[in-house]
Amino acid sequence: MRSNEKGTMNKTALAIACAALLVLAAWLILPALRDQVLSQRPRHLGTTSMAGADTAQEHFRRGMSLAQQHNNRAAEAEFQAGETADPHDVSNFAGLADLYANQGKLDLADAQFRAALALSPLAPSLHYSLGLIEMKEKLYAAALADFNAELEIAPNFRPALDARNSAVQKFNARNISSPRQVGAAPAQPSPQAAVTARAAPQPSPQPAAERIPSPQASTPSLQASTAASPMASPQGPNLIANGSFEDGRDPAAWRALDTGSPDIAAWRVASGRIDYIGSYWAGSDGRRSVDLDGTPGPGVITQKVPTQAGRRYLVRFDLAGNPEGPPAVKQLRVSAGAQSSLFTFDISGHSTASMGWQPQQFQFTATSAQTTLQFQSMDGTSSWNGPVVDNVAVIGL
User: Which of 245, 239, 251, 297 is nearest to 268 (CA)?
Assistant: First the structure.
């Protein structure tokens, strides 16, 4: 009997030990499995629990239902509760933004749309909705930027195209109703300050293989010009926003802007570096202009323009050159879509006090509902003193 009891006890002890090992293994393994499962969830769900995400969606659905019933206070509470339940769920932020917009609470709607975009910058319609709020706030340059961002996501979204056209018209109408002092003499920096601010080493001669060809040697697709060609007959409003570069971060005398800089409203530094000129010399229209050879250059600026496929357009702008260094003849390529033209400006006899602005023009035929207008310095990689542009306009013919 004792032998049987001993065997039974041994079996019982073994079973208990096995159970203990299983419990220990579960204690160690299950958290790792849990973490692995959570790590494989879609990133947009964040780190909140699935129950939390469901709760956020329930708040969103109730908030939308209450908003449709015009129970704004209760709807606001639901959206706010949804934001708390899952701060990574964009729907409640967007829902609350729409609620505030419908109530005319523009500042709150603006903030909510920006919060939603911070969570999901590529979500459809968010940039468009924020742009509509900015239009009501009369922030036309900001609205234009948001409509352009929406069109990057959905190029054929007709409401954004129409809203962008309206933003351009409002922007230009505001500038016309508040005209600037054209050609006002800027505060001139002292010679010593000028040397400190803009002086640069003289570039070494370019190897023959790298020299920029003269306009006469350009390909047939490029039309060289140092003076304005006969003026066409434009019709309709100027489609360019901030064509004289007056709206943007104050450049003081001048400021170098790198690729991607948003400092000039409605314009983008597409590549290289440019100099945003303030009081360093007088612009042709207002105080500011753009030197397309930054410190150092060269650089490219662009703006998307609303167009109609098959229609011809006239690009007008004023051209000068930075007179403080070589090359003596500045070269500028202006492009609209796949069409381009080459322009030159000789700085001989000119100075920062006498820039010698020359009106120029270029025509193109649009192939889509939106065309990118581009100004590009062709002076080479070692130039610090490039072609200078101001007073840009695009008008339908």
Answer: 245
